[in-house]
Amino acid sequence: MSLITNDSDRVQRGDPETAALAVQDLRLAYIVRGTPREVLRGVTFQVRPGEAFGLVGESGCGKSTSAYAAMRYLPSNGEITGGRVLANGLDITAMSSSDLRNFRATQASMVYQDPVQALNPTLKIGKQVAECFRILGSDKGGAEDQALEALKRVHIAAPGSVMDRYPHQLSGGMLQRVVIAMGLAGDPSLLILDEPTTGLDATVEAEVLDLVRELRHETNAAVLLIAHNLGVIRTMCDRVGVMYAGKMVEEASSDELFEEPRHPYTIGLMNAIPRLGLRKTDRALSTIPGNMPSIGTSLPTCVYVDRCPLATDICRSDAPPIVELGDGRWTRCHHSDQLSSIEEPSSDIPEHVVGPDNMIQLHSVSKTFRQKGVDIPALVSVDLGFAEGETLGLVGESGSGKSTLAKTLLGVHSADLGGEITLDGRVMKGKAIDRVDESIRAVQMVFQNPDSALNRAWTVRKILTRTVTSLTEIQGAAADRRVEELAEAMRLSSHHLDMRPRQLSGGLKQRVAIARAFAGDPRVVVCDEPTSALDVSVQAAILNLLATLQRDEKTSYLFITHDIGVVRYLADRIAVMYVGRILEKGFTDDIFEGPVHPYTEALLSAVPSIDGTSHDRIPLTGDIPSPSNPPSGCVFHTRCKYSMPGTCDVHEPPEVEVGPRHSIVCHLPIDEMPTPITVSISKKG
Amino acid sequence: MTDIDNSGAETEGASSGSMAPAQDRKTVKQEQRKELFATPSFIIGAVILSFWVLCSIVPGLFTKWGENEVIRLADGSTIPRTGPGANAWFGTDTIGNDVFARVIYGADNVLINAPISALIAVLAGAVLGLTMGYYRGLVDEILSRIIEAILSLPVILLALMVVVVFGNSRIVIVLTIAALFTPVVARTVRSAVTSEAQLDYVMSAKLRGESGWFIMMKEIFPNITNVLIVEFTVRVGYAIFTVATLSFLGLGAGDQSAADWGVDIANGYSLIQSGQWWISIFPALAIASLVISVNLIADSIEKVYNS
Question: Touching check for B23 and chain A: CB below 8 Å?
């Protein structure tokens, strides 16, 4: 049974005194360098007992601040300037600090994004968990027993041995379970989760979400969930509030919101996401023009007016009304009756041409690291190639060797002897510094995090000019012209050129990083999760830019990502990695149609989708094996539900051609190989 | 490159720069400066420091007596070893010099030597720290061990040995103090560079074939200047102590009869027991006030940078 119900009794907004959490017209400012800057501009929402409420919106919209304010857990420069927060009828904003402490200990708890930071690295897990019970008044022995029970409750196998370990000895997913166990210690009536799965792999994320769902059912605690991943919100929440610039703009039940958004901003967010199997050959993604107003900006009327496709004069002169849509659903817009006039980008896009032959080819490339005298084979005889203008999506869990593969291609380190990388049939040297200029130019990279990838002491102009002059023969005035051209192609204006990275928004920074990668007319650009640090609307613009550049420049991409929607949109072919090996490679369409490798099946089913819930997720239990000690036979047999004892754990599986350029490394006969579960596609979609 | 002209594509970057959520760099700097100038500890520190700087440049502005001029009353008599009073605010020393004038004139020795040695230490430490933090490996290992060895020895003892061997000229004192402070600076810079070198822009520079020197000096160095400024202000404080201590031990630079806080404390401290506390206490207070002012400034700068 799905826990996401739309029981109308539940969604009816009731008396704030009885709500698990009622935030009423909350206003909050941060004092930054002496000036108070408004972050929350009157936020109102309610979480009913037993309900899961999601807050969504781009970064900086105030969703995390709202969550922290609900615990009155604010930085020293945060100040509540108006409104109040009620939890089970208690006014948190007016509580004394000892009452507040008591409230946090017994009635509400919070789970943070990074479990590593939430746990004390110097104390054993058992001690930290037991402490939660000690605070609640248990004696030492009793607290330890309770801690053991608490760990069992969050499905930690062998809780006894986990109690005896330090945080650094556990995986991220395991740590987040421990944090959840600690959060549930006082049987809270309200559980606040702030991006609880953001740092985790999709497979681990799915497990943690399953756990939260189950525990919620068990304890009947109300949940306030903050997540930038809309798929997580859809699979977890009964109701969703959409925030923008410190104001709630729409609230609805989860299904209603995702099926039929009723605010221009929500529509913009939904359309920006590559969903329902959309491909780059179908159409460009919708984007939201402009940026979120920075905190402290005065916004007297509609907060979204500067970016809204429907904005008219009234939107600038009058504050928009709340339009009731029944069942507690509402939107804050002057034009909620004209939403159907918001257009999607045209599907009339030029043809995407992929070269006939592989331009770059990896021939049985292996990479072994040596650490403390132990050999760690991070890549094991990888054969992979891609053609001009082609995007190869590389997917797999963390630690599967995706980054090592990218770094070997880039020449950050050289491959083991025996393997080689060829460009147009010519072998490239291992390390970038030994490569000929042409090869250096040919392979460039766009990094995950533009803050780290751009030198913050340099102006954009300096970053690009240096790259142009050191990668190409273009010098002097010609180089300046080239930089201007590059900037224009990335839709950066010339005044952006004289700014430093910190003055630019995340999307603009990533454009600069892309401009730098394209400065020397590369043949291949390695994109290492280039959009995972960005908001969805910005992600859409960056993906559009990458697709357009590829069409125009015939550049190939090696695109590493965790986001199945993104890889499906952009990739022509997909390679699936596991413990340093490629388990499957094939055309994107073929992979989503199947047959696929059992690992691919599990990986695809793990991803929480905004298109609806898949009820029959393939659980992928256990941790990814260590490359230093890979399982015998097929490396995946330890986690594979189709594993055949006597075969899979003994013999290495063969590479089977299941279709044109689609091969799978598996013992299963082709007709027994699984087909990926397609999520129940929404009726209206 | 052709321009992108798809409907619906690429609108985000076309927005005006003033809309960029990140604060204008200039505004941030301005606000930082404004906040710094509004910090009480910074104001107090700056006032005290400016006073001493002024003393070392134009001591005549504050006192009518010279540093080696014996106070003579109207009748021509001298008043050695007299406590603070109308004739001499801070009293007079054993010869009859004005202690106040000695304190004013004594500022220049410390105020010249300490910042110069701190500056040299920071520059040398920066070069060492950059090399160690960027290249890591064997060189880093060896240098790190040497630094740890030096840091385990008391600074003043090492300084004493060097000055005794090479003589107490200003250049020897300045270079000795600089050399002794270099390891600490190098260690701080190294850790800043180590984390900086892990950022992707360094990898990006390597991927376009830049030299190690270029990456260190042009890419990384501008990003660690805050660390260097803070390190400099902290080192100046310690250098003041060290310079004064050397003078106290009779190993100060230059003319021994010139006013010098360390020398004057040394000359007067044995007289505290006989009740003539003012001869050594006032120069000591001068040292303390200078060190405190520098530390106040250092703390405020660090706080503002990190906010």
Answer: yes
Instruction: Report the complex ipTM.
Output: 0.79
> pTM for the complete prediction?
0.82
Indicate the range of A177-191, A286-300, B150-164, B239-253 predicted with least confidence.
Answer: A286-300
* pLDDT the model gives residue B85: 84
Q: Are residues B34 and B90 in the same domain?
A: yes
Q: Which pLDDT belongs to residue B26? A: 65
Q: How confident is the model at residue B94 (pLDDT cuts 50, 70, 90)?
A: confident
Residue type at position A55: L
**Could you tell me which chain B residue has the CA closest to the CA of A271?**
B8
User: What per-residue confidence (pLDDT) applies to A483?
Assistant: 94
* CA–CA dist A662, B11 (Å, integer): 37
CB within 8 Å of chain A, chain B residues 252-271: none
Judgement on whether residues B125 and B203 belong to the same structural domain of the protein: yes
Tell me whether residues A453 and B199 touch, CB distance under 8 A: yes
Q: Indicate if B228 and B121 belong to the same structural domain.
A: yes
Phi, psi of B95 (to 5 degrees): -85, -25
Distance between CA atoms of A388 and A385, rounded to whole angstroms?
Answer: 10
Size of interface A-B (CB pairs under 8 A): 173
Report the relative pairing of strands A443-446 and A358-371 from DSSP bridges.
Answer: unpaired
pLDDT digits (tens, 9 = 90+) for A177-223: 899 999 888 888 899 999 888 878 888 888 888 888 888 888 888 99
**Residue B154: which CATH number?**
1.10.3720.10
Residue in A448, A491, A538 closest to B4 by CB:
A491
**What residues of B are in contact with residue A34 (Cβ under 8 Å)?**
31, 34-35, 38
Query: If 0-12 CB within 10 Å is exposed, 13-18 middle and 19+ buried, where does residue A230 land?
Result: buried
Residue A612 has pLDDT above 70, yes or no: no
What proportions of chain A, in percent to the nearest 5, are helix, strand and coil?
35, 20, 40
d(CA A235, CA A246): 25
Instruction: Give yes or no for residue A450 having a pLDDT over 50.
Output: yes
B305 located within any domain: yes
Lowest model confidence (mean pLDDT) among A1-15, A186-200, B284-298: A1-15
A32, A33, A444: which to substitute to probe chain B, counting the most B Cβ within 10 Å?
A: A33
Residue B305's pLDDT is what? 77
Q: Which of B198, B207, B214, B219 to mutate to test the interface with A (most CBs of A within 10 A)?
A: B207
Is position B267 within any domain? no
| Residues in chain A closer than 8 A to B215 (CB atoms) | none
Of chain A, the percentage scoring pLDDT greater than 90 comes to 30
User: What is the reported pLDDT for B236?
Assistant: 93
CB A432 within 8 A of CB A440: yes
* Together in a domain, B236 and B306: no
Q: Report which DSSP code applies to B2.
A: P
Distance (Å) from the alpha carbon of A252 to chain B's nearest alpha carbon = 27
The total number of structural domains in chain B stands at 2
Amino acid at A610: I
Preceding omega of A595 cis (within 30 degrees of 0) = yes
The whole-number average pLDDT for the span A15-19 is 83
What is the DSSP secondary structure assignment for residue B93, as one 8-state letter?
A: -
Residue B229 lies in a domain: yes
Q: Does B199 touch chain A (CB under 8 A)?
A: yes
In a domain, residue B9? The reply is no
CB spacing of A503 vs B15 below 8 angstroms: no
**Whole-angstrom distance, CA of residue A438 vs CA of residue A428:** 10
If asked whether residues B125 and B202 sit together in one domain, one would say yes
Domain with B102 in it: 26-106+275-307
